[in-house]
Structure formats: structure tokens, C-alpha cells
Amino acid sequence: MSVLFRSVEGGALFPNGSVVCIGAFDGLHLGHRALVRHAVARARALGVPAVAVAFEPLPREFFAQGTPPPRLTLARSKVQMLRELGVDAIGLLRFDAAMAAMPAETFVQRLLHQRLSAREVWIGPQFHFGNRRGGDLALLQKMGAELGFSAGEIQAVDLHGERISSTRIRQLLVAGDFARAGDLLGRPYSISGRVVRGRQLGRTLGYPTANLRYPRTPALSGIYATWVHGVFEQPWPSVSSFGTRPTVDGIEPLLEAHLFDFQADLYGRHVEVEFVAKLRDEEKFNDLAALTDQMHRDAEQARALLTEHRLRATA
After folding, report:
1. Tens digits of per-residue pLDDT, 84-127?
2. Exposed / middle / buried, residue 161 (Cβ in 10 Å: 0-12, 13-18, 19+)
3. pLDDT of residue 202
4. Theoretical Cys-Cys bridge with 305: which of 147, 225, 240, 255, CB 3.0 to 4.6 Å?
5. DSSP string for 74-116
């Protein structure tokens, strides 16, 4: 199991050296994966651990607390995906006022040199860090020459002539273009988590749901045709609502997946909800009867779309 640490401060974790990559890694798209895989390959070549350094919350979330920007991936999923890419240690650094005020030089000295004993440091194109974004590749190379590590920047990753970025993926998700977003991510867009108990309103309306909390601002809002993974060997067809549930005066984002023709108890299970198509925006209905009527139409449309989606996948 890989090491997980949360602070710049502390003793040396890898006295014999490490290879470090740094980034926000929101969504872990193909560009992020290229950076991480390069760092892992270099670490294996040098016989030292590969370390991925990220931040929680994301810096852009910290600086926009009143209106936080949409988030593609929650911390738990990010850590899991980084481990699957072969990373030996993950720094999920707490981004708070102290971190925001830390000069880039201090970050390099304390974390990269003293704590991680970096031998190589890799970043993505135009990546900046430290107070007032004062750290960049030039600073890493200058300090690395003094402290004993090298620094490099991987090339931008394009797909079919389009620059891959988390911002572009958010735009595609909002537009309902899940196929294109999945291309840039390198996998279908999904959200995973542990099923929690809700108000059980869906059960009383004939649509029991598996509920996943999303304690960040989501990139999506509306009603979707979805597959639920982690229930059986094959993904299970479902219709999902993702939002604040305005008809029942909800506040916090909640992903509610209704699995078709499914009866088992999923509370406490870890599942993954894959988004296939957007059916409509979230809206507030005058009463529960009107909401239920619309839910019937949503379910029928989602079944048809998922049947078509499965046929295309097996063609």
C-alpha cells in the first residue's frame, strides 16, 4: 500500500531519494496520466519511490470559497487512481492560509528537498506553485542545481488536435458531451462513493435510490442515464439525479441513482456511477405527483438510451 501524507512539514520520508510529480490532478485526465506515468517510469529506472504531490482543497477552491469552481474528482477517487497508476506515495497537502502564503522557495526546500529527498521533479506545462504563483520550472531548475535534483516539464498532451485540460472537460460535461469528455479523460466520466441513507423519499414514490454525497461543487447538475458499477459483475442500468433536489428544498449536492429492477440493500457499499447521457436539467415541481410523473418519463427515456448504448458497445 502506498504512503499518504498531508503536510510539507515532517521528517524525511525517502532518505535514498524519490522522483516527484506535482499537479492539481483534478479528473486525472490523459495529460495528468502522462505526467504521472513518466514520473513512475523515471522512479523505476532510478530504483526509488514515485511520489505524486497534489492539494486538498484545490488552490482554486481555496481562493474562491464563496463561489467554488466545479470539481471533477473527489479526493478519495484521486488517491485511488494515482495508486492504480503505480505511485508509491501521495502527498495530498492541506491547502490553507499557511500553504497559500508559503513562498515557492520554502516549498521546494522543505518538501522536495528535506522531506522527499527529490532526485527528479516533473510538472505539467505552465504549472505554477507557491505564494503568488512564484514557482515555475525555471525556479525548480535553479534550486535543483543547488540542492541536487533535476527538474523537467512534460509536453502538453493533445487529442485529435485539442488540448486536454480539466477546464475543457468541465465544459464538455456541462454540454452533455460525455463521449468527448471520456475521450479526454481516457475513461468514461463517473463518480464513486459509499452509499448513504437519504430521506427515503424516492422509495415512497416508487423510485428507491442509492445515494452518494458530493461535498464539493459538482461539474454536473440534472437528470442522467447512468450505469452503476460495483453491484454485480456487469454494470447495472439506472437513472440518476445529481443536484440539490429543489422540489424538496435540498441544499447539499447529492447523487441519487435509481437502479432498474433492483431490490437488494446497497447501504454501505462502495459503487461507481458512470454518466452516459443527460436527460434534462434539474427543476422544481409544484408537487410530488408532478415530480413522480416526470420520473416515469425519465426512467423510460434512460432505459431506451442505455439499451442503445449497450448495443453500440457490443457491435
Report:
1. 999 999 999 999 999 999 999 999 999 999 999 999 999 999 99
2. exposed
3. 55
4. 225
5. -HHHHHHHHHHTT-SEEEEEE-SHHHHHS-HHHHIIIIIIIIT
Cell of 313: 458497445
Where are the extended beta strands (E) located within the chain? 3-5, 18-22, 50-56, 89-94, 118-123, 150-153, 158-159, 162-163, 190-194, 210-213, 222-229, 236-243, 254-259, 270-280
Cell 442509492 sits at which residue? 210
Reading the block at residue 160, the C-alpha cell is 485529435
List the one residue out of 202, 200, 181, 203 whose CA is nearest residue 190: 181
The answer to whether the pTM exceeds 0.85 is yes
pLDDT of residue 199 exceeding 70:
no
Q: For position 241, what pLDDT does the model report?
A: 94
Q: How many distinct helices (H) and strands (E) make up the chain?
A: 10, 14
CA distance 98 to 25: 21
Q: Which three cell numbers stand for residue 219?
A: 461539474
Residue with cell 424516492: 202
Alpha helices (runs of H) in 148-206, residue ranges in sequence order:
166-174, 178-185, 201-204
Length reported for the chain: 315
Integer angstrom CA distances of residue 210 from 35, 104, 200, 205, 259: 35, 44, 10, 14, 8
